[in-house]
Each structure stands twice: as C-alpha cells, then as structure tokens.
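User: Batch of two.

Assistant: Item 1 of 2:
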Amino acid sequence: MTTPRIGYGAMRLTGPGHWGDYPDREGGVELLRQVADAGVTLIDTADVYGPHTNELLIRDALHPYPEHLRIATKGGFVRSGPEISTIAALGHRQYLRQSAKLSARRLGVERIDLYYLHSGWARDASFEEQVGTLAELREEGVIGDIGLSNVTLDQLRTAQSIVDVAAVTAHYNVADRHEQPLLDAATEAGAVFVPWQPVSLSVPGAPTDTAGPAAVRRVLEPIATRHGATVSQVALAWLLGRSPAVLPIPGTTSIAHVRENLAAADLVLSPDEHTAITGL
C-alpha cells in the first residue's frame, strides 16, 4: 500500500460531538467525492465515528472505490450515547473480530486496507491478545495492513514483537509533541506515523485551533507570509519535514481547505525556518 504524504481524516463528517449523521448528508457525499477527485488516496475513519455513520457515508459517496483510493478504519471503542463520557474501550477477541467484519460490511469491501486497534486502553483482554486478534484477521484476509492508535511506546514495541505494524496514529502537531518518542520508534521500524489534528495548534482533547497561542503565531505567521502560504500549510510542511514516515490526515468540511492542505506538500521550508518552528 502506497500513498502520497497527506491524507484526509473524515471524523468531522458526523453529527455534533461526532454523534449521529452528518447534518448535510448530500454535502458530505459531494465533499468526499471531491476529496477523491482532488488526489487524496487515503481516507481515515473509525466505527465509533457516529457510531457507524461515517463509514456508511464513505461507502455511499465513493463505493465502488476508485482504484487509487485506500480506506483506513479502526475498532475497539464502543459508545452508548452522545456524551463523550459514554465511550469505552473493548478488546475481547470476539468483539474485535465482529468490529472488523462489520466495518468491512459497512464499507462494502472484502478486505479493509488498513485497520487500527483504536486504543491500548481496553482491560477485558490483554494488549497482546488484542494484537494477536488483528494478526489473525490479517491471516484470514479480513484486513490488509495493521495499525495502532492511542498506544504507548511500550505497547508499540510489544505489538512489533507479535506482528508487522504498518502505521501508528497519535496526536502530534507544532504545538503538541509529547508523542515524539512514538514518532521516532515508528520511523525506526519503517512504519508510517499518522498525526491527527495535524494543523491544530492545540493540546489533545481541545477543539481544533488553527490560530494557536501568540508565541506560535509569532513564528509561523512571518514564515507563511514569506511563502505566500497559510499558517496551516506551514504547520503541515513542518510535519512533513520532521520525518519521511509522517503522513498527516487533516480533517475539514471544506473542499477549499482540502486542496489547501494537499498543496502544503509542495511547500519547502528553509533549514532556518524549520529550526525556528522546532525550537518553539
């Protein structure tokens, strides 16, 4: 599986608080089609987005999928209501098997291109058992590549001792780099590192904020002006320069922003500019 350096995160195409259907369903369908037409080759979703509505929207918009397009989804979370507090992690073998097979059904595929364990937080099965279940599903052809989401560095190393890990996704951007050791380990192992909320200049759990704190703006805004770019494009260009393993998946409900994000792959920061941002 190969893909250009910037994908698309579809999580925002859900209802308020990521619960329920996206209010403008026809608009969501059209946006996803334009995303694929713009050259995006990796769309990221999860069964808990909605739950389930995001995967169904992607199928309705894009199935049968263009030959160049790959879909990544995740399993291991359950959600019983609109409140974020109702989300819990489950890792039981039969639950994960059901989750993967139902995601494949909703997406309309025989095999899911990239399937993530959505977290390392479940306590109803050991982490090793959960990774083993994904390895089993890959052997059966239900999933292609295996990914890990919201895991610790130790969990990544444990998983790598069991099965090949193709991708690791975590919160990582200009303003929040606490997952740098995970990025380093993924790069060393030859896995793809997928930052979520990559253009946000905020901490995990906070709403997306592309303006960011004043200290960050003072560095990024002059660089953006010199390049005739936006701050978000500079933030993406910096991420791409951190490691050849980085593949951001910015999410947006605007096709103009999708094209703007993709154009960031052509923005080359000077060594001094990259150093200035890294030094924040």
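Item 2 of 2:
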Amino acid sequence: MPSPFPGMDPYLEHPDLWPGLHNRLIVRMADLLSGELGDKYSVSLDVRMYETNNIESLLVGIPDVSVLSKKGQINTSNSTESQVAVIEPSTKPTTVTLPIPITIREGYLEIQEVATKEVITAIEILSPANKRGGKGREMYLEKREKILYSLTNFVEIDLLRRGEMMPISNHKNESNYRILVSRKKQRPRADLYAFNIQNKIPKFPLPLRPEDTEPIIDLQSLLTTIYDVGRYDLKIDYTQQPVPGLSEKDAVWADTWLRQEGIR
C-alpha cells in the first residue's frame, strides 16, 4: 500500500519514524546512483558522528529548596545554639531531567571520481539535529560552509518541516520542504526546488563534472519504494494528527485529502 499523500508524507516526520526512514533513504539513493554513474564515479556512504547532551534542549532541574520558614519569614532566631537559617527541603520531590550524553550518527553521500579520488558531489539529507540549535547544527553549518567554498558540488535535501531553515539569500518562500542543488561553477547562485505537502516531490539533476550527463534523481519514487518495503502503512494511524503538527491551512487540506482517499 503506497502513502496516501501525493508527495512527501508528513506522518513520516514523526521522531519515532524519521531515523529509520533517513537511513533507508540514504542507502536506497546510494544503490540507485551506483547503478547509474558507470565506471567513472563511485558512491561513498559515510557517517558523521558526534556526542551531545543537548538533545531537545534538555535542562538540569533544581529541586525546590527554600530558606524561608513555614510562616514565610527568614529565621532570625537569637538562640545561642545556632545563628544560621534553617533549610527546609520540599516535602515532595520534583521530577528533573538530566542531560545524558548520547552519540549521534548522521549518514551522508559523496560522489568520488575513481581516477583522482576527488569528491565531486556531496549529498546531505537533513536530520532534526541539523535544524535546531546545538552541536548538530553548528557542525553541519561548518561543513556546509566548507563545501560551498570548495570545488565540490552540493545537494541538500530538507524533508522536515520543523526547525530553522538553512541559510539561503533572497528566498522568502516559506515552503514545507526544499531541495537545493549547488553547482561549483554557478556559485553563489544555486537551484532551489521548493514544494509543499500538496505537491509531488520534484525530480532534480545530480551535478557532476561539466562534461558529464547529470542523472535525474526521482526522490518520490525512492520514498514510495521505502514506504512499501518498510510497511509504514502498518505503523501510521492517519486518523490522528501528524507529529510535528501541520499549519491550520495544511491541516484542513490534509483532512480533506485523507477523507477523499477513504482513510478518514
């Protein structure tokens, strides 16, 4: 059973589903490109790893400890036994959250020229950590900047509505999703494919060396295959609202669409 949505399925962005989908998409894309690039290029699937303790802005909670007396007054007893204010702990504990260090693994692709071992094109599929503040975004933006200052072509795929967009100049269209194709010889200009949940995901070319034919990546077809193989139809309850939630306009459209598809 295919996804009921014409393009990107917003239910796939759920935190419990996205990591697996991200991994499947990276692998599927690598397999596809390996069959299309011939002998001149090779596809490398690499993993960026780092540790962080700031996932979703975790904070250390502090129990409610007061230095006030039960009557709300500071203890100023003249007793010769003690001149120190008495600390009375809360009678009930406070639930706190501790920032536990975890290891983040983010997959990405590199297209290399076999003869020279040179990285010709870098492909990134954004993860939630790339789009929120913290180490994940800082590391990604640093790598992104290095690529854009280099001779490497760059493809950036953003299939996540939540979080801060990546820096793009002269772009005011706040679309749900984006695909950026940056060719080294055209910088600072680049091609941006912006689309919403109502739209089919656009096909886009994979930039290589100027003399070579650019293969076309059909991201919609890849996601359809992944949805079927992963049996996401058994994992998603379309009678509920997606996580993260949709805007009011998109929520109305999605409800109407799902009802037309006979799912609600």
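Confidence is low (pLDDT under 50) at residues 55-82.
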